[in-house]
Amino acid sequence: MKKIRKVWRKIDPFSLQLRLTIGIAAFSALVLGSLATWTSWKMQQILIDSHKHNIEQIAKRLPQDVQLYSEMMQPETGLQKAINNLANTNTLLWLKSPDNKILAQSATLDLLSDSMVAELMSLTKMPIKSQVYKVNKSYFVLSGGSVVVQGHLLGDLFVVKDITREQTIFMVMVQSLGIISVLAIIVLTSVIAFYIKYSLQPLRQLSQMTAVISAKDLGQAQLYLDNAPSEVKELAQTLTMLLSRLSQSWEQEREFVSNVSHELRTPLTIVHGYLQSVLRRQSNLTQTQQEALETAASEAERTIRLLQDLLDLARADSGYLHFQMKSYVLNDLVEEVVVMAQKYSDRVITIESITYPIEVNVDYSRLKQILLNLIDNAIKYSKAGTPVTFKLDKLQDKAIIQVCDKGYGIPLQHQARIFERFYRIEESRSHATGGCGLGLSIVKTLVEGMGGSVSVQSKLGEGSIFTIHLPI
Predict the structure, then answer these.
(1) CA distance 134 to 289
(2) According to a count of CB atoms within 10 Å of the terminal CB, is the N or C end of the chain lower?
(3) Closest C-alpha to 382, from 295, 460, 312, 456
């Protein structure tokens, strides 16, 4: 039962395969059902017609026999003898006068029960149709006609043919035909489902091929399927051309961002240098001028950092972001970064580690940039006076760095997107803290560039834990 439930849950009610299978199976069931019904009806008509013809021959012969026997004996005796000669165990006859009196009947009627004879005779009170009548558990074909001897109407002749045996065989055949039709529908549906699944396999392959294409692979992506239908091959060619156009557009965008960032960084660096030079000679400046210059220098510095982040991301996308990987003691490197961060912040930053030394293979300057970004993020999004804690550990072939804060926390629905570029949880809070949504994206790019991974765990009102795994 559990296996059936699992299989049922895997079935997509909106899939093309299921729709085609149900549609073709329903059409096949309709066709086979109609064919079986028509065959059954036709066989029943053939059975009725064969017995009807036999009864008509009896009704045609009776007047001749009556006339022949009437010449040799009394008319009543001749009539009875003619009826007995034409009757047998399966054929029953009786003759009714115009005033509904039984003039003569076959001796075989005495072999039936009184209730069956009464029910058969009651059928003659209504218009008789050539069809199968069921009386008790037996089946009969009933037919009637007038008997005229020498121009004189004797009465109405009724001939009943017992077809119980033939009807039983016919019912068995119909039942067998029904079972065969059901089995045929099941087998046909299974074959159709398998064939449709096989026919849709190229589309699944195409979907799988496009699913693994990343932004880096857009230019080299070539979608081609062997032995696929022409329509699927055309779709693959169309998607290949689409990916090529996307690659060109993506490349132009990256070049634009890289060129703009590079061109703007140099003049902004010069402007920032002049502002710092003027601020150092602040004896001739008023308080308002000094504050304006400090604000301008701060904004210029923030813009330079933003442009540097954009350059790093553009280089990473283009594959030009190089790392100088060397072996370092992680404990000493983190301590150095914490000392540097404490010079520019009044926060308490502590380090917790039970393992020393933890050696890692990293780019020193890139790892320092990662840690400073995480410290800056923890300080921006936590209340003043709350500590920031580094936890260092080693697990098998991975070094683990955890940056913990007691800040506002990140809502669960945002945690999956927190490392996306320019993604900010709250615009107002980001503007207030000077964030632009690139810090964590840079962290993710640099960590993965060094063969590691980064993740976040957070609860609202309790803080966040950013966890970095680096190769030892």
Answers:
(1) 115
(2) N
(3) 460
pLDDT tens readout for residues 370-414: 888 888 888 888 888 788 888 888 888 888 888 888 888 888 777
- Cα dihedral value 426, 428, 432, 435, nearest 10: 40
Look up tokens 């001796």; give the residue: 107
Name the strand (E) or helix (H) holding 315: helix 287-318
Q: Which CATH topology does 325-471 take? A: Heat Shock Protein 90 (3.30.565)
Q: Which residues contact 455 (CB under 8 A, 6 or more apart)?
A: 466, 467
Q: Give residue limits of the domains in the chain.
A: 2-186, 230-318, 325-471
Our CA angle for 375, 378, 379, nearest 5°, is 85
Same fold, 230-318 and 325-471: no
Are 402 and 467 in contact by the 8 Å Cβ rule? The answer is yes
List C-alpha distances in Å: 254 to 74, 161, 251, 311, 373: 121, 94, 5, 9, 23
Distances (CA, A) of 203 to 210, 337, 376: 11, 52, 48
Alpha helices by DSSP H, listed for 200-286, are: 201-211, 230-280
Q: What is the mean pLDDT of residues 209-227?
A: 68
93 DSSP β-pair partners: 159
pLDDT in tens, 269-281: 777 676 777 777 7
For residue 63, say if its preceding peptide bond is cis, omega within 30 degrees of 0: no
Q: Which of 226, 195, 197 is nearest to 209 (CA)?
A: 226
- Helical (H) or strand (E) element with 81: helix 75-86
- What architecture (CATH level 2) is domain 230-318? Orthogonal Bundle (1.10)
Contact (CB, 8 A) for 368 and 446: no
Radius of gyration of the chain (CA): 49
Tally Cβ neighbours within 10 Å of residue 117.
18
State the pLDDT at residue 431: 44
The least confident of 163-177, 412-426, 442-456 is 412-426
Global confidence as pTM: 0.48
* CATH class as words, domain 2-186: alpha beta
Q: Which two tokens stand for residue 358?
A: 């933890």
Closest C-alpha to 217, from 192, 185, 187, 250? 250
